[in-house]
Amino acid sequence: MKYCFILKIFFLCRYALIVLDNQNLLDLWDWEHRGNGLKINNGKLFFHFNPKLCLSKIDKLQEIAGLANYTDLEVASSSNGDKVACNITPINATVERIDSKGAVISWEAFQHYDSRILLGYVVYFIEAPYRNITMYDGRDACGGDG
Question: What does UniProt give as the signal peptide span (predicted)?
Fold first, then answer.
């Protein structure tokens, strides 16, 4: 039993930062306003089950902190950022017509070097009587979207 305890301590000591099971975590740090002076001298990153945290945010932390590349066992691409759009490309959209039954929206076709990448478009909408909503309106503390 003592040997098993030592193995658990060794496992945890390998990591400088463990971020685990944060259902609504969207960002790690405000790099623009808080500076880039973060340095981690020893240890690795461990990120799992953070469904709204994009891998690009973890990559930025790794780069600024001066850490070595992580493996899929340390930072899981399948459980971080899997419930949010991470690689967003803005497109030009125009509202052509609005009536009581719906709206007609047109946009330029998305251009990508591999036409098989984009399988379709999803258009989300939310009623905004005062036109002052943000992408966070309608979300609750449990991660649901209105």
Answer: 1-16
Q: List the one residue out of 75, 86, 84 whose CA is nearest residue 23.
A: 84
**Measured distance CA(96)–CA(105) in Å, rounded:** 6
3-state secondary structure of 95: strand
Residue 121, both tokens: 């478009």
Distances 72 to 7, 23, 83, 99 between C-alpha atoms, Å: 21, 19, 18, 49
pTM: 0.67
Amino acid in position 5: F
Amino acid letter, residue 48: H
Interatomic CA distance for residues 55 and 51, integer angstroms: 10
Q: What is the pLDDT of residues 47-87, one digit of tens each?
A: 999 999 999 999 999 998 888 899 999 999 999 999 888 88
